[in-house]
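Notes from the pairing session

We agreed to fold both candidates in a single pass and log them together. This is the raw record for the first candidate, unedited. Please don't reformat it; downstream parsing expects exactly this layout.

Candidate A
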Amino acid sequence: MTTAKDIMHPGAKWVYREETLDRAAQLMRELNVGALPVSDQNERLCGIITDRDIVVKCVSKGHNPAETRCAELCEGTPRWIDADADVSQVLHEMESHQIKRIPVIENKRLVGIISEADVARNLTDDQVAEFVEHVYAR
């Protein structure tokens, strides 16, 4: 059985919800990623922030990323998957919520993240096609 832990990108990092968007952007640059899970003070997931969120929801509206907190852009119920979840559960979660990235949690700790690139690299052509159809076609 292939699990979330088998296909995830390990070493994901949190950004604290009270950090500014400019700090989140700096972390994204340092880590060479386009998204970061956002945590509360207890390292519990409260959302994900993307580079696109920073541009579209902050910069393009004339807001200052040095004065805007990550928490201000976190919307909706945060989605995550357990490290031991079967890959079919991973796909179901991503497809049903039309999300392109999902944090992987083990023992209440962030251990990685699964992106659409991880899906493409690790799954069959049929699984990737189904993923694309459900996430992008709607």
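Candidate B (folded immediately after A)
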Amino acid sequence: MDLRIGIQNSPRELGFETSQTAEEVEQAVAAALTGQSPVLRLTDSKGAVFVVPAAALAYVEIGTESARRIGFVG
């Protein structure tokens, strides 16, 4: 699934692909926004860990879990 995270006072967003489910990502975001966790911690599909302070989150866009197409789309 593709994720895009907007960070306050940053012109760029953080984008990566993760093997976590949409529900797992939503739970992690909710925990960070409600103060249960001081950071949002997510892992990409290659094993890299991304840690964003909860206070710096602007938005989190959760993409679809569909497989990518190969070839030309007409």
